[in-house]
Amino acid sequence: MLLAGGHEAVQAMATAIRYYRRDNFEIVGVCTAEPAGHFGHEIPIGDLKVPVIGDDRHILEAAQQTGAQLVAAATTHRLGRETLCDLASDLEDVGVDLAVAIEPQSANDPAAWMPMLEILAPGYRRARSMSKRVLDIVFAVVAIAAAAPVMAVIAATIKLTSPGPVFYISDRVGLNGVPFRMIKFRSMCAGADRGTAGMIASTDSSPVFFKVKADPRVTSVGAIIRKYSLDELPQFFNVLFGSMSVVGPRPQVQREVDAYDETMRRRLLVKPGVTGQWQVSGRSNLSAAESIRHDMSYVNNWSMRLDLNIIARTVGTVVRGEGAY
């Protein structure tokens, strides 16, 4: 075990660990919040002298240097919530677990209780797993085969009722900010994109998650297929070819991505999806802040169970046609 935190917190953690679990852990070093001038010093813990490996900015390197299997940390002015989440991801990459001490007690009390919480790495790394890719391929193949007759009818109806192409192909931003071409059935009049910037300016709206109720650019057929998300069926080809996933954040255009702050950029850590957490939680009825909160929750907490749950909920959401326009 490698300890990290302020001098007193590290002593308190070590004392409690030795008191309760003496035979289970070997403390191989500490990273303190003190300046770099303390490097190479030792911290006395009972009859032990534990080496100071570095400060709390170099925990990953210290863990690798000492061969630690677990890092136990107490919060410092540098080790806050966001930093600990990033540290959990970095440590996971090298096979090291992270636990955080809750309100360390005085090191002078050897019987002081020291509760610790395990910090799981953000789920976006697991969302790049082979199991998710296999689910995407299988689901996309089944969806395309099952929906082929419906897609043929939609394509013919669009062609017969509105001038312009059947498909709408849009440049979107995908995993890690890499652009790709997304395909949908066209639900607006041809060339509708040219009026988007003006509509955003005239309504003083945010460029992120921009939607307009009763949008005059939507065709009569488009209104129907958008209500039941049928316009998105061709996106399963994007899933099949690997630029999208069945479940993930909504794929956004460069204009929207350019308006991201650092938190929102985390949406790009996973592939965009045909459906997602915000789609089954209110769709376009949600505010931009609510949509972002759902996307961040998905990115940080991905699991296969969550994907399957969202897929199941999507069916009911699409059938009811709620929140789509």
Brief characterization of the structure:
The chain has helices at residues 7-21, 59-66, 81-93, 130-161, 196-203, 220-227, 235-241, 254-257, 288-300, 304-320, and strands spanning 2-5, 29-32, 42-45, 48-55, 70-73, 97-101, 116-118, 167-173, 179-185, 245-247, 273-275. It contains 10 helices and 11 strands.
Number of helices: 10
What integer value in Å does the Rg equal? 26 Å
How much of the polypeptide forms β-strand, as a percent range? 15-25%
Structural class: alpha/beta
> Helix and strand string, N-terminal first?
EHEEEHEHEEHEEHHHEHEHH
Low-confidence runs? none
Number of strands: 11
Number of spatially distinct domains: 2
Instruction: Describe the strand arrangement of the main beta sheet, using strand numbers.
Output: 3-4-2-1-5-6-7
Shape: elongated
Q: Name the helicity range.
A: 25-40%
Mean pLDDT equals: 83
Distance between the termini: 54 Å
In this structure, how is the largest beta sheet organized? Answer: 7 strands, mixed
Question: Key features?
Answer:
single chain; 325 residues; alpha/beta; Rossmann fold; 2 domains; 7-stranded mixed β-sheet; two-stranded antiparallel ribbon; 10 helices; 38% helix; elongated
